[in-house]
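Lab meeting, action items carried over

1. Structure of the two-component assembly. Owner: GW. Status: complete.
Input record:
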Amino acid sequence: MQTALQSLPAELLLHIRRTDPACVRAWFDQLQFSGIAHGTLIVRAQNDAQRRHLESNCRNAFTYAIQAATGRLVGVDFETDSSPDNSALTRDRDFSTFGSTLSPECRLNDFALGQCNRFAHAAAVAVAADPGKVYSPLVILGEPGCGKTHLLQGICAAAREQDANRTIIYAHCKQFIQEVIEHAESDMLCALRSAYKTADLIAIDDADQLAGRQRSQEEFFHILEHRLQSQLQVIVALRRLPEPGAGFESRLISRFQSGLIVTLETPCSDTRTAIVRELARRFCIEMPDDVAEQIAHLANSGGHQLEETVTLVDRYCQDRGGVIDAALCRAALNSETPHASIHSIIEATATEFGVAPDAITKSRPSKNLRLARSLCTYLALRLTDQTLAAIAGTNLLGGPETIKTQNRDVINRLKSDRDLEQHVARLLTQLTGSDPKELNILSVSRRNGTATDQSFHKSESGSVE
Amino acid sequence: MKLRFNRAEMADALSAITGVAAVRTPKEILKCVRIDALSDVLLLSATDLEIGVRCAVTQVDVESTGETLVAADTFSRIIHECSDETMLLDISKNDLQLRGSGSHFKIRTQSVSDFPPVPVLEGEPDFVVDAADLRRLLEWTSFAAARESTRYAINGILMEIAGKELVMAATDGRRLSVGRTPLTSSNVKTIPQTIVPTKTAALIARLHSDGDTTALVKATANQVLFKIGRASISSSLVEGMFPRYQDVVPTDCDRIVQLNTMEFLSALKRAALLTNEESRGVRLSFAENTLTLSSRTAEQGEATISMPIRYNGETVDIGFNPVFLTDVLRVANEEEVTFAVKEPNRPGLLKLNDKFLHVVMPVNLSSA
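Predicted assembly:
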């Protein structure tokens, strides 16, 4: 019996994001499931690329989520719709046994643009529109994290989307070398040569690794030579153009130089911000603009580190109530966050409100003390190194859900409640000995949801108002 | 047919046989035990059409061979009630006569030709395993199997070969028990998916142990055959696809404690006294060198039990259905068990040794 497919429940996706934010992708809302069969949740991906990502990176997160949701020992299996090709990306290996698979995330449309990469992107778009007709070979240079792989895969994906019958090989150089070795050992080099020479487009990533590998260079040179004569597209990505005598044959270097050489510079601040926004979109993170800028400003490097940083900030904020704000972001990125203990926060809050600490922590505080308790939660999430789960584990301020609710309540009230703001300011001064404005907590809470580009720079300088 | 037999040995064989002979069935023939007297052995057979068992009674002196069919329950009760060392069995016309010192029984018999065949293991087995190990695996796992679940496949115990080991697994969806033991020998690398019914497992556990016996096992697509000592058992398999249990065994539990099995069992049983359907579970609080078990019910009150442990990790509170833990501790035959958890909503892992593990889902105690 065919079971109707449904979208994955929102709670499940939320749980996955909380457990493993790095694995979440924007296309998760396209995933479907057909129920639990034989103790296994069958999740259906749109294409093979998605399925591979799920299998490689998401199995545990999905398993934990479905187990938490059902209270049962349920496993997870990922399948692809077996209907005829519904995405060009699903066929990236069908035509050939060579090369690697394309990531569903690396599309030209998703490439974060800035001054540092605009020219390279334009060249990539032109090549993808008409492979072999312009800029062949296209040589993309750039340091790790500048977007070489993204551009290479984006060109391949775009070229395939235009014509699903195009034969395209995208290969990391390591894989190409391995293929050469394996085919040489099995006396099948003619098959490799034929595939690489006749494909409509080949893209070799991290070609620097050909350095010192004579056999692979030899094969690659002949492939390149044949393709250039046949007006077939070649794209190569390297860190920098090889110097003669640095492990590369001069004839290969000269062929590289005969093409269009574009350089991806280290992302500038604007580009890094765009990358952070793109990563947030990809990981389904609701990230205020000022936080994106803050991350881009503090993580002064390329895409790989930005991705790690975005994941780190998201996980940190998920552990502390699920709302990302600049204060939590700063705490996640900066170990100099002033620390206080939960007990000291409760005692200070009790003194501020003129009650005994026990009145705040007892299981059912009176109505007028709920605000004090919420305030303790809000401060504990920001001033201690305890996660939400750890704070809940102390049994002082309520369970995980209560803590989330209390945190959101204070964030919302701070937007308009001046009295509460004064309470917080006094408590922050008392608990940390610092000026609350420098802590960047109050200002961000009031701004939350309406952050502007300027707000970040104001908070950076410490002059919020 | 006429023979003299050792009553105690016959009683042992009948203990296993009568568990299979159907009690409530419209087919009278299935309530019977078949008796085959060969030249030097007496064979007792019973079946309920799903499970068949044949036991040999070797301490017999057969005067004349033959076969007959008698009501299993009646025959068994007579053998058990008598206290003679040996008894005489004789068939005359349609009656089976049993004679002991000062006692004489005459039981109606039925036609043997109507009795369904009881398959027995013939030829080479798929594998051979120590009978005691087989029983231990079944004991470790069968309690975790589902009872009357609509997911039929989990109403039994999965049996499979993994390398040179026999692996058994059972789950009811909330807990999973997996045991493994080395094979004595194997003629195959894999066997078809074999889900043994829990009734068959119970029958094997009841079989009298003769010390160092081995168990010969052969699995086909719809049947599994055992030969353990003097008994041969055939069983149809539970249909359906057993869950891929390997996927739900947690691999990242980093809060690990060694617990004294009996102390932990005792603490759980005490804490479980103040739980009910509503309160759902016992809270296990792992703190530095102390495990605190607490439970509460709105009507009856609260319980707090503490026990010393060797633990210096992060504090964690996690709730479990106490039955799921006591069940496994009852069959634990080691002085210590290893208990590993990760987070309150992740499954816990209880390891007995490197041969047995038990995965158990936690219960949500936040509202309790």
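2. GW to write a short summary for the group page. Key points so far: The longest strand of chain A covers residues 32-37. The first helix of chain A runs from residue 10 to 19.
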